[in-house]
Specification:
Structural class of chain A: mainly alpha
Distance between the termini of chain A: 25 Å
Order of helices and strands of chain A: HHEEHHHHHHHHHHHHHHHHHH
Structural class of chain B: mainly alpha
Radius of gyration of chain B: 22 Å
Oligomer: heterodimer
Shape of chain A: globular
Helix content of chain A: over 70%
Order of helices and strands of chain B: HHHEEHHHHHHHHHHHHHHHHHHHH
Number of strands of chain B: 2
Strand content of chain A: under 5%
Distance between the termini of chain B: 42 Å
Radius of gyration of chain A: 22 Å
Strand order of the largest sheet of chain A: 1-2
Strand order of the largest sheet of chain B: 1-2
Largest sheet of chain A: 2 strands, antiparallel
Number of domains of chain A: 2
Largest interface: A-B, 33 and 32 residues
Helix content of chain B: over 70%
Shape of chain B: globular
Chain lengths: 481, 492
């Protein structure tokens, strides 16, 4: 039994130990030695990644009384989370160090959030799932407020907390109804019960709606997107980068676990809900983004539209849809990290970048960074030969294969709207003259530029050879069931 | 060995040379960058010559094919091939790109290296569009091509460049996204993205009509056909000379080429059903846009509208669906490539000296620039379809083709020979002839050696094709027969 737990949940155990020890060590090390904490955290991620990758992809391993599962989905999403978090830490180090925020608490909270993400990804029981959600959410609320002196940050944290608590309430309510009608908290048993016995359809539909609403809220899909722009804008840029990237893995996992693996018999019912949310998110996200003047708000609305695309893939209820969404989420995170990495890079050099117009004249001052910006935003817009194109391509393919022609057409039209505001960013960086003289006061950390360069180049290289990642996503989705 | 990858080399040489130039430009002086760019452009042109030499004109299928798997999950292949329809366009692309780079140092003062590199990359991507036989490979080249053009207009363009370049980008993308949906639909039907598989797929009439409309949206914007032509005058007016040349000479041809390659053979029954509307739209472009061209006061705009009108001839010829029209449309495409390039070069020559494009600011240029004057008259004549120039051949064949179909279509199309002559010759009269109105014009310096070379090369080609059009038709003959058969077969 113990060996079983050790093989299946070893990465989580390591993360937990590290999260607690980093907090302790932080007290002794203080700010001046934050680098060693940074090293410990990165090392933790590496070790966790090693043990995770040792798990077999084709089998389903259970632990903790079958409440915890390790399968292809968890393998795929967890490895991506480690990789993403590692990049987040590299990007944010200099910025946080300057703001005096790089301490044990930060690393500890980030690791606890990761633990929450891992728990959600691996949950096979409603309680595990809920515990993961709360662990992740509480860490995120605190991370948003970690910059105590900024009033904006506190306000954003408060908003996030209240709305997040409501959403958790919805989920919990849905869970309790599921328990009431099936008498079980195990995902698989619930699914079997709904399939076999006559359950009260009224309660079941209420449960379905509550669960779907909860998922949509955590995902940041319209019409439950109101917290997204405020939280993005209020948090410090590295925290925004974190919130905007890795927790999305957990949201996808939560959706697959709850809708595909638990409520799979109700596919006809949630399909339409997801479709409506997907279309609303794509259109609302892209149209509202046009009117934004602040970068982080713009990226928040862009995130909403990307979530819409993922939901469109997931709404098909088919394996191709899942594989397209899994491919999309990986590329989305890579692009999001690059875009926020770029903002952090510029903020380190020119002072905080807030408005879009702060990017003006970038091509003249920093031709290389401007070129990276070009790649990143073209990728977000989905123009080939960047990876963003294949992400949208595979979603549209899955939609058309399912026979949804009009949703596919709406999706491409909303992508067109998206292209407009991404182009506007490129336009400001390339064609506009600098509004204020922002001659580079400080040179950027070489390591940061190098990471950003590799990140952006990866968008092109993966765009030229998307096959490996696509194959992995396909394999993963084929092995889930 | 080399022959197996001859097409890949034609695509990737200019792209890699362009990237190389981007990297190198930091440490080099303007003069060396220009020379290097010129050499790169010339190399890119030279490597397309073997395509012409080794091309087998008696074979109707695709030659020099390269196939290797690319994205196995969607069975997307890296599949290239050359036939009689793509060969002249590939040659046109590499040649015009070289000329554009050759003359770039005249008008471009800042970041010359990036300017030349953009053209090199653009030329590789456009050749990729002509050679791709896999729909997604084609789509990637087609979209990627927009990026360098977007920057070319946006960075080196005129005062209203930002508006023009974003309009250009969005118009084009709007169409291409629908084309992507069409491709994916076809993939779900055939299980492959190979164009050759698309050709043989049986489809219902309904599906064909929708597919044709989706393709039409993409290609009509590019050609551009009335009523989605409005981006072109803006883009042309704001683009730097080189950008206008490439836009008119090659980019517009991409749309017509894609009609031949995709829309017509894949959805022939849809085409047949929509044929009357397509002919009507083409005729509107020919007649109405020619009338619009007459009243323009900006000479670049005038030539831009004349381009739309001439492309109307191309589409009219293609949609006639008979050999004469098809051949005529194709020759018109190549001929317009040379003539419009020459006209935009000429305007560039004037603009570099006078910094104005308003027709009223000129007059009597012949007094100070006799050489330029003679070339300009020749090109204007060719533009209006004077026999002996390439402009005549295409228009004449298209009108003959239209005559087989219906007298009135031919009559309306022939009207434009009058309108074309009107705006071309009136332009010549106002700019070239008369007395020099302004002092500045009297002091203009005639063509320099570089400009003379470019002008005479284009003039020579215009005359050669005008006198001996078989130079093109021999190449295209076999392929166009096969293509027409494919188009005339019902696929329901």
């Amino acid at each position: 039994m113990l060996t079983n737990i050790l093989t299946v949940a070893l990465p989580e155990i390591i993360i937990l130990i590290s999260a607690m020890s980093v907090l302790l060590l932080g007290v002794f090390f203080k700010n001046k030695n934050a680098t060693s904490l940074f090293g410990i955290t990165q090392l933790t991620l590496l070790i966790a990644a090693y043990f995770t990758s040792q798990l077999p992809i084709e089998s389903k391993l259970l632990a903790f009384n079958n409440m915890f599962v390790a399968d292809s989905l968890s393998l795929y999403l967890k490895l991506l989370s480690y990789f993403g978090l590692s990049l987040v830490l590299i990007y944010s180090r200099d910025y946080l160090l300057k703001k005096n925020l790089l301490n044990g608490e930060f690393f500890s909270l980030v690791l606890f959030a990761l633990l929450g993400i891992n728990l959600i990804i691996s949950s096979y029981h409603l309680l595990t799932l809920y515990m993961g959600i709360e662990l992740l959410s509480l860490s995120l609320y605190t991370l948003v407020a970690i910059d105590r002196k900024r009033q904006e940050a506190t306000e954003a944290a408060m908003k996030y907390f209240i709305l997040g608590a409501v959403a958790s309430g919805f989920l919990l309510y849905g869970f309790s109804m599921l328990y009431g009608i099936t008498g079980s908290l195990y995902l698989q048993e619930i699914s079997e019960q709904i399939g076999v016995t006559e359950v009260n359809p009224m309660i079941l539909s209420f449960a379905l709606v509550f669960v779907t609403v909860g998922i949509a809220f955590k995902f940041g899909a319209a019409p439950f997107q109101l917290w997204v722009p405020d939280v993005y804008q209020g948090s410090s840029t590295p925290i925004t980068m974190f919130i905007g990237s890795i927790p999305k893995f957990a949201s996808v996992a939560m959706l697959i676990r709850l809708l595909y693996q638990t409520l799979d018999h109700l596919v006809m019912d949630w399909q339409l809900m997801l479709l409506v949310m997907a279309i609303t998110s794509m259109l609302l996200g892209n149209i509202t983004a046009i009117a934004q003047t602040k970068i982080k708000r713009l990226l928040a609305y862009s995130t909403i539209s990307h979530v819409g695309f993922m939901l469109l893939g997931l709404a098909t209820g088919a394996i191709t849809g899942i594989s397209a969404a899994l491919f999309y989420i990986a590329t989305y995170v890579l692009m999001t990290l690059a875009s926020f990495g770029l903002i952090i890079c510029l903020s380190n050099q020119r002072g905080d970048i807030d408005k879009i117009s702060d990017l003006s004249g970038l091509a003249k001052d920093e031709p290389w960074l401007a070129f990276l910006l070009l790649i990143i935003f073209l990728s977000l817009a989905g123009i080939p030969p960047t990876i963003g194109f294949y992400a949208k391509f595979s979603i549209i393919q899955a939609t058309l294969q399912f026979g949804w022609i009009w949703p596919a057409v709406i999706a491409v039209m909303s992508a067109l709207i998206g292209i407009y505001y991404y182009l506007r960013m490129i336009k400001i960086a390339y064609f506009d003259d600098a509004i204020k003289a922002t001659k580079s006061s400080k040179s950027i950390h070489g390591e940061l530029t190098l990471t950003l360069t590799m990140n952006a180049i990866a968008l092109i290289v993966l765009g030229l050879f998307p096959s490996p990642l696509m194959d992995i996503a396909t394999l993963t989705s084929a092995l889930i069931f | 060995m080399m022959m197996n990858f001859i097409l890949s080399i034609a695509i990737w040489t200019p792209i890699s040379l362009g990237i190389l130039l981007l990297i190198l430009q930091k440490n080099l002086s303007e003069n060396i960058i220009y020379k290097l760019g010129n050499i790169f452009g010339f190399i890119s042109f030279l490597i397309t010559i073997p395509l012409y030499i080794f091309f087998d004109t008696t074979y109707s299928g695709f030659q020099f094919q390269e196939i290797s798997p690319w994205i196995s999950h969607f069975s997307i292949q890296y599949h290239l091939g050359l036939d009689g329809i793509s060969l002249p366009l590939v040659m046109l692309t590499s040649f015009i790109t070289w000329l554009v780079i050759f003359i770039s140092s005249n008008s471009i003062s800042r970041s010359l290296g990036s300017y030349i590199a953009s053209f090199l990359i653009l030329s590789g991507l456009m050749i990729g569009v002509f050679l791709a036989l896999d729909a997604i490979l084609y789509y990637v080249f087609w979209e990627a091509m927009l990026i360098p053009m977007f920057l070319l207009i946006g960075v080196w363009g005129g005062p209203n460049r930002v508006y023009a370049t974003i309009k250009f980008f969005l118009y084009t993308v709007l169409g291409s996204l629908l084309m992507l949906v069409a491709f994916i639909y076809l993939f779900n039907q055939t299980g492959s993205f190979s164009i050759v598989d698309f050709y043989t797929k049986q489809l219902s009439l309904n599906a064909q009509v929708f597919l044709f409309i989706a393709f039409f949206m993409a290609f009509a914007v590019k050609i551009p056909m009335w009523p989605v032509h409005t981006w072109l005058p803006d883009a042309h007016v704001e683009a730097p000379t080189g950008g206008s040349v490439i836009l008119a000479a090659i980019m517009l041809k991409l749309g017509a080429y894609s009609f031949i390659r995709f829309a017509m053979p894949i959805a022939p029954d849809g085409l047949l059903l929509l044929k009357p509307y397509l002919i009507a739209i083409s005729l509107i472009a020919i007649v109405y846009i020619a009338l619009v061209a007459i009243v323009q006061t900006d000479m670049k705009k005038l030539i831009a509208y004349s381009s739309i009108s001439h492309m109307g001839f191309v589409t009219l010829g293609l949609f006639m669906l008979n050999p004469l029209g098809f051949e005529g449309g194709y020759v018109q495409m190549i001929s317009h490539g040379f003539i419009s390039a020459a006209l935009f070069f000429s305007i560039g020559v004037l603009y570099d000296r006078m910094h104005t494009r308003e027709i009223k600011d000129y007059g009597g240029v012949i007094n100070s620039m006799p050489l330029f004057g003679s070339f300009f008259v020749l090109f204007a004549m060719a533009n209006s379809g004077l026999p002996g120039t390439s402009g005549f051949v295409g228009e004449f064949l298209v009108i003959l083709g239209a005559m087989q179909e219906n007298f009135w279509i031919a009559f309306l199309a022939a009207l434009t020979l009058i309108f074309g002559a009107t705006y071309s010759l009136w332009l010549v009269k106002r700019i070239i002839f008369g007395v020099a109105k302004y002092k500045k014009i009297a002091g203009l310096i005639d063509l320099n050696a570089k400009e003379f070379f470019v002008m005479s090369a284009l003039a020579g080609l215009t005359l050669i094709i005008g006198i001996y059009p078989a130079l093109i038709t021999d190449i295209t003959n076999q392929s166009s027969i096969v293509m027409l058969e494919l188009i005339q077969q019902s696929k329901i």
